[in-house]
Sequence to fold (71 residues):
Amino acid sequence: MDPSARERTLDVARDIIKAARFAALITQEPSTGASARTIDPAPPDSAMVVRFVTNPRSRKVRQIARDPRVT
Fold:
């Protein structure tokens, strides 16, 4: 993909993310499988990293610590 096409694609992705506002975070729980919840993320940074704030004692933090693969 040429650099200008990549930038256009990233711009469109940022617009979609901004318009959607909420996102689904899906983690893995060994005993029950996938666990999905709605989050209110910050806009993606220049590297398309999306961050969100949560209680460090939450179940999702334990799940991510155990298996960092998320969707």
About this structure: The mean pLDDT is 92. Residues 3-20 form the longest helix (18 residues). The longest strand covers residues 23-29.
